[in-house]
């Protein structure tokens, strides 16, 4: 049985066999063999390959269900003929099992990506670079990417294997078992602080879009928020304020491919529709199933996944320009076949943020995926200052509200401001894969999702009585059954 431990290893080595396009660097084939990593150009391709793996994480259909659809912002358009959608249904309705393919695939992909960063970090030190600053940059990028992906793992699964050295054979893949949550966070903090030291403030030309010092500081701030170290979080965010970011005047421009890597973009997953293998595909997964050529301009397939709920649609205040920039309604007689349309007067909602026609072909779009925006920094800073009482949080939340066309807030007590900034984060960052993490971090997941489940079961007759049975142990996803079987891990309690 122990020889089957290579479930992650083989995926990792396969990923190292090719390098995705990143910015203006052409793809190259390279090996994980020790003879490969000998010069700057080879490390550049390796780092670009690590970014390329992030592209895949965001364009396959298993990561966003575990970070957004599991929460109250989105659900799915049910089609009884599509039994392959059951895996998403289980996540959305809290009917998850340890054999769920989405859970297994997310686990595998995150560890595959971590293996790529481990190879870079394990082999870069002895290699001579003509420019030591470039060497530090590549190291910092790998540290940032590894920290980001362990941050996903620890929030989704709790204690996880902590692998920071290159896996060279199947026997050593998970030989150390699962590390504690504290140990994982210690490594994440070590990586992100190393990234802050090594990364530049900005790039020029074709390098724009790579991880920067501001991106690493924002990641550090969110980590400290998650650990409830609000003083340290505020310190990190305040450093980001001095790095030249600003809010765009028009909220919708953040998601328009014509304004990629703008002044508000702190870190985004880069996509290019001009290259078939590097295009994004979000609207093709999220658009209404029955829209097809009405939305995309030619016959094609739309997934009907991650569609906005009535809850998020109602959450926008009167006059908030972000609603129409974020959510559109599809009108068609065929909507009557889907009960999801009833709450929207016969329309089917879909995520407008990622809809920018025309498209070159089916499944091929040009949007970047926003991971961190400056508005997010401002709102987390406002939250941190409210928790510490060590500064005025209002300028930061009100800057975001002003851009949305809303009146400023003033004179709220700490509890009322806490609720206001949480609501603001939900609206501002809707459909950007932050909602589940926000509910976990603020301790609101059980309360919010229990109420959401009551509302969903009242409006959707297809839901069983077992749906949305929210229990504390379900705040962590189960360790994939395959890893339990092959590596002898203990399952998370309750599963």
UniProtKB/TrEMBL annotation:
Cellular component, GO, one term: cell outer membrane
Domain SusD-like N-terminal, first and last residues per copy: 90-221
Predominant localisation class: membrane
Protein origin, superkingdom: Bacteria
Residues annotated as signal peptide: 1-17
Cell compartment(s), UniProt: Cell outer membrane
One Pfam match: SusD-like_3
Keyword Signal: yes
Record keywords, A-Z: Cell outer membrane, Membrane, Signal
Entry keyword annotation includes Ribosomal protein: no
Limits of the RagB/SusD domain: 350-495
Family: Belongs to the SusD family.
Protein name: Starch-binding associating with outer membrane
Organism: Parapedobacter luteus
């Amino acid at each position: 049985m122990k020889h089957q431990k290579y479930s992650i290893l083989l995926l990792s080595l396969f990923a190292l066999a090719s390098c995705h396009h990143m910015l203006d660097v052409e793809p190259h084939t390279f090996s994980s063999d020790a003879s490969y990593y000998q010069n700057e150009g080879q490390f550049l391709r390796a780092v670009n390959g690590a970014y390329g793996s992030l592209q895949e994480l965001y364009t396959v259909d298993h990561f966003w269900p575990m970070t957004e659809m599991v929460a109250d912002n989105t659900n799915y358009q049910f089609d009884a003929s599509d039994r392959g959608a059951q895996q998403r249904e289980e996540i959305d309705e809290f009917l998850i099992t340890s054999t769920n393919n989405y859970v297994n695939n997310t686990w595998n992909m995150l560890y595959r990506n971590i293996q790529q960063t481990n190879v870079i970090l394990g082999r870069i030190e002895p290699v001579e670079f003509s420019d030591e600053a470039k060497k530090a940059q590549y190291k910092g990028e790998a540290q940032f990417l590894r920290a980001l992906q362990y941050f996903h793992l620890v929030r989704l699964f709790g204690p996880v294997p902590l692998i920071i050295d290159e896996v060279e054979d199947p026997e050593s893949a998970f030989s150390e078992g699962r590390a504690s949550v504290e140990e994982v966070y210690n490594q994440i903090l070590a990586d992100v602080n190393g990234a802050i030291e090594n990364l530049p403030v900005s790039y020029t030309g074709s390098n724009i879009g790579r991880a920067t010092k501001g991106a690493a500081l924002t990641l550090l701030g969110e980590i400290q928020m998650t650990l409830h170290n609000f003083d340290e979080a505020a310190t990190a965010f305040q450093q980001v304020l001095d790095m030249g970011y600003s809010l765009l005047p028009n909220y919708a421009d953040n998601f328009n491919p014509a304004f990629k890597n703008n002044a508000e973009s702190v870190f985004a997953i880069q996509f290019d529709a001009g290259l078939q293998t590097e295009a994004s595909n979000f609207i093709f997964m999220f658009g209404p199933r029955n829209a097809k050529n009405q939305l995309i301009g030619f016959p094609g397939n739309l997934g009907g996944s991650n569609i906005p709920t009535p809850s998020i649609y109602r959450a926008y205040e009167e006059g908030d320009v972000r609603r129409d920039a974020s959510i559109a309604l599809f009108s068609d007689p065929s909507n009557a076949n889907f009960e999801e349309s009833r709450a929207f007067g016969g329309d089917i909602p879909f995520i407008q943020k990622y809809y920018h026609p025309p498209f070159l072909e089916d499944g091929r779009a040009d949007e970047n995926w926003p991971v961190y925006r400056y508005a997010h920094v401002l709102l987390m800073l406002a939250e941190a200052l409210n928790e510490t009482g060590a500064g005025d949080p209002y300028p930061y939340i009100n800057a975001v509200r002003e851009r949305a066309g809303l009146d400023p807030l003033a004179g709220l007590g700490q509890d009322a401001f806490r609720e206001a900034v949480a609501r603001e984060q939900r609206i501002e960052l809707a459909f950007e894969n932050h909602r589940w993490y926000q509910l976990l971090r603020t301790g609101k997941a059980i309360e919010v999702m229990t109420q959401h489940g009551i509302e969903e079961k009242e409006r959707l007759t297809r839901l069983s009585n077992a749906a949305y049975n929210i229990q504390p142990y379900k705040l962590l996803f189960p360790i994939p059954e395959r890893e339990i079987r092959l590596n002898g891990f203990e399952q998370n309690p309750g599963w």
